[in-house]
Automatic annotation (TrEMBL), chains A, B:
<dbReference type="InterPro" id="IPR010982">
    <property type="entry name" value="Lambda_DNA-bd_dom_sf"/>
</dbReference>
<keyword id="KW-0678">Repressor</keyword>
<feature type="domain" description="HTH lacI-type">
    <location>
        <begin position="2"/>
        <end position="56"/>
    </location>
</feature>
<dbReference type="InterPro" id="IPR000843">
    <property type="entry name" value="HTH_LacI"/>
</dbReference>
<dbReference type="Pfam" id="PF00356">
    <property type="entry name" value="LacI"/>
</dbReference>
<keyword id="KW-0805">Transcription regulation</keyword>
<keyword id="KW-0238">DNA-binding</keyword>
<protein>
    <submittedName>
        <fullName>LacI family transcriptional regulator</fullName>
    </submittedName>
</protein>
<keyword id="KW-0804">Transcription</keyword>
<dbReference type="InterPro" id="IPR028082">
    <property type="entry name" value="Peripla_BP_I"/>
</dbReference>
<dbReference type="Pfam" id="PF13377">
    <property type="entry name" value="Peripla_BP_3"/>
</dbReference>
<dbReference type="InterPro" id="IPR046335">
    <property type="entry name" value="LacI/GalR-like_sensor"/>
</dbReference>
Length: 331, 331
DNA sequence: TTGTAGGCGTTATCAA
DNA sequence: TTGATAACGCCTACAA
């Protein structure tokens, strides 16, 4: 592992010239440049980025705070973040929090200790327990539900769930079950609002017994399915707050010999890749995962560049995806 | 953003003492320690890890080279890597390669330029195009197929696929289709070997028309399903080289009104979370994802610590997972 | 166009 | 137990 000094000696020039040859080649004469590059090849020199970054007080790394790495939705977002970051010379440090504020604080420390320049927060914002914003931490929130006290990129979950529940109603359903995420999750709250608004608009009373609280996992969706299947007054359609739970619910409906969608319709949320491959294929809401990831990274880059964002909040459009899991109700 | 000098001044001690207070508290008197800590609180000091790492010539970061983020199998592995790394003070830099050697080289550069201390390679090893081992790069391979010229953690894919195809045969199947990954993928090769060995052992001739080359995606599994469905001599069972393709195939069988498993049995590989929730639940091979991730990280840590591993290769055990996608054939 | 030299924040060596 | 000081590798005024 050679350093710049060795290259300089070998090339018969000064350290400064070698440095310039890398960062500002046009400020170096052709002959010097050649001598330097030859020497570089000879000794196999690579600039020490740790030194360079240290010197420039920038780490060129960004931490992505993600609740659950094994959630395909986040995988997509992270991919977009990485691609965008890479184009601008930034690396991505993984920070899986698994909903632990302690772990989150640990990752935030990476910024405080200068191992990262900023943070992209993928967990939804819960004011009471939020560690961000932090005076010394550049941060952007993405994929959240409500607005945050710092820049964010998200979609309108109320409107999205409103539209899909509305669709269910337009298909003749009036007894519509709801599988929610944990009730204190902001996404759950917003999507529940949309559900209730759609019911209200159609003059349907909200029925507490049709609301089942899951936690966004397939398992909890399955549990919800069992619950609905055993209800004496079974719903004719179910609005699931994500695709994963919908899959679990479908599974348990089938186990109870309830046909989907003939006996019960169901909708999802997220439009994960496998939503096309479930049986039946899921009618769902597509979240613009890639767009959110990309936009979030660009926003953070801008902030790191010292330019405050023009808007605090960027709301991206969702998409209604029609497939086969909903059928006209004719009771 | 204050530095150690400021803390020293404030505490009325030397910078050396401040440094020791952090790295070697017991070498500092109680009174000095208190003075330092008070000063630290006052000015909100955080050690600059960039400087510290620079000084120690270690970045405490490790790059994980992963072909595809949106593959839940890798998500699990990476999670285990991160958890293990974190316990030892290491951070994880994400490196999604998407099978591009160019991108891979970019990430490897992170190690050459000292932004990372080592690499965990999750792509299977293909000797002709392999960038590793590299003289200056500490690396460990995980989840690969064949042996690598550097330390690796993997399972025996030949044995695993042998066992599951053997199970199919024991259930009376003799016409067994195979959905493989790309034929030049080492995993595909090994699993194909296991498939062929099981057939051979049962005295069944290998039939080329029963082999469909996919690429490990659901879409390609679906294509395979279409292919098998339209075959005049349809197989009675299908060995899919991963769960994802099995899901795709099941979908297309159903579209062709072929019942699974009554009309055709199928098996998967990986045992992803959703393998329980497919219809029918998948009989499959569980890869020890977490164990491989953890072991790989520990191995790399050991190498970074200057201790060469006791073995070059660690073969972890797979597990046969019996569920509902295979049924006795009684033709 | 080039070289000299100072400094980034930390740790480690060596004396005191 | 402490402090002064020399690195670590690089960049960048500044001067030549």
């Amino acid at each position: 592992m050679s350093n710049i000094r060795e290259v300089a000696k070998r090339a018969g020039v000064s350290i400064a010239t070698v440095s310039r040859a890398f960062t500002n080649p046009d400020k170096v004469s052709q002959s010097s440049l050649k001598k330097v590059m030859d020497a570089v090849d000879e000794v196999g020199y690579r600039p020490n980025m740790m030194a360079r970054n240290f010197r420039s007080t920038k780490s060129y790394a960004v931490v992505v705070l993600v609740p659950d790495f094994a959630n395909l939705f986040f995988s997509k977002v992270i991919r977009a973040i990485q691609e965008t970051g890479q184009k601008h010379g930034y690396n991505i440090l993984l920070g899986e929090t698994r909903d632990s504020k302690e772990r989150e604080a640990d990752y935030l420390k990476l910024v405080e200790t200068r191992q990262a320049d900023g943070v992209i927060q993928l967990s939804p914002h819960i004011p009471e327990q939020e560690l961000l914003p932090h005076p010394h931490i550049s941060a952007v929130a993405a994929c959240g539900a409500c607005d945050t006290p710092y820049a964010s990129v998200r979609m309108d979950h109320i409107a999205a769930s409103f539209s899909i529940v509305n669709y269910l109603i337009s298909m003749g359903h009036r007894k519509i079950g709801c599988i929610s995420g944990l009730s204190d999750n902001p996404h759950s709250r917003d999507r529940l609002k949309g559900y209730k608004q759609a019911l209200a608009k159609a003059g349907i009373d909200f029925d507490d017994s049709l609301l089942y609280e899951g936690n966004f996992t397939m398992q909890s969706g399955h549990d919800a399915g069992v619950y609905f299947a055993q209800l004496s007054q079974r719903p004719t359609a179910v609005f699931s707050m994500n695709d994963l739970m919908a899959v679990g619910a479908i599974k348990s409906f089938k186990e109870h010999n309830i046909r989907v969608p003939q006996d019960i319709s169901i909708t999802g949320f997220d439009d994960l890749d496998f939503a096309t491959y479930t049986d039946p294929a899921l009618t769902t809401i597509r979240q613009p995962a890639e767009e959110m990831g990309k936009k979030a990274m660009l926003l953070l880059l801008q902030i790191l560049d010292g330019k405050p964002p023009t808007q605090q909040e960027f709301i991206l459009k969702h998409e209604f995806v029609l497939r086969d899991s909903v059928v006209q109700f004719s009771g």
